[in-house]
Amino acid sequence: MKRALEIDAEVGSNHWRDAIVKEMNAVRVAFDILEEGKKPPPGYQKMDCHMIFDVKLDGFCRKARLVTGGHQTEKPASVLTYASVVSRETVCVALTLAALNDLQVKVSDVQNAYLTAPCAERIYTKLGLEFGPDAGKTAIIVRSLYGLKSAGASFQRHLVDCMRTLGLNPVWPMQIYVTSQLSGQMMGLSTMPMSYCMLMIAYAYIMMQKQHYMR
């Protein structure tokens, strides 16, 4: 962080300082600062935090991100840390099906997504210079900061809970069996009455298998 502020001084700008202030305004919710002299509860692991910097392509704006050193702590035994990610191919198939069937596509961007989810690990840290007058104090991490081993899984669980609260349930298209004559394998694709879109996804998957085996 010190070097970023030095660059601002050298070029006569406040780009990096503004990026740091913006990030800290958003991330402070993740820290429960303890009173002077108060120790973290038993069983909490210490972890350092640090700032990382980048220049975004859209307008070349500066981006600062406060992250944790997830490598410094042991993996929590009672917390699932794996979070699956949708492949690019699946997204392309879904968008293609939407276009072919004149379906409206809605997307959203969750600002500072991980910070919306509670922290599943027992972690505390010493606050750095970026916290201004609170620097040097001890704080409990109460939100899923970037860098935590469980951050991705915590956000995934939190998002699913929010969607279910809104009455939206996930679709599981991998339950009935469809035979691929190309690979001779059984591919699980949906037991419950399948919609046209689900059948098309199955067809697209088989076509991708075909292209793979023809190479």
Question: What does the secondary structure layout of this molecule look like, with pairings?
Answer:
Blueprint: H1 2-11, H2 15-27, E1 31-33, E2 45-46, E3 49-55, E4 62-68, H3 88-100, E5 123-126, E6 138-141, H4 151-165, E7 177-179, E8 186-188, H5 196-214
Parallel strand pairs: 2-5
Antiparallel strand pairs: 1-6, 3-4, 5-6, 7-8
Helix pairs in contact: 3-5
What is the average of the pLDDT values?
A: 78
- Per DSSP, the total helix count is 5
Strand tally is 8
What is the N-to-C succession of helices and strands?
HHEEEEHEEHEEH
- The gyration radius over C-alpha positions equals 23 Å
Class from helix and strand fractions? alpha+beta
Offer a concise description of the structure.
The chain has 215 residues and is α+β, with helices and mostly antiparallel strands.
General description of the model:
By secondary structure, the chain is α+β, with helices and mostly antiparallel strands. The protein has two domains: 2-170, no CATH class; 172-215. The protein has helices at residues 2-11, 15-27, 88-100, 151-165, 196-214; strands at residues 31-33, 45-46, 49-55, 62-68, 123-126, 138-141, 177-179, 186-188. It has a four-stranded mixed beta sheet, with no helix packed on it. The protein has a two-stranded antiparallel sheet with strand order 3-4. A two-stranded antiparallel sheet has the order 7-8. Helix 3 crosses helix 5. The longest helix has 19 residues, at 196-214. The chain starts with a helix and ends with a helix.
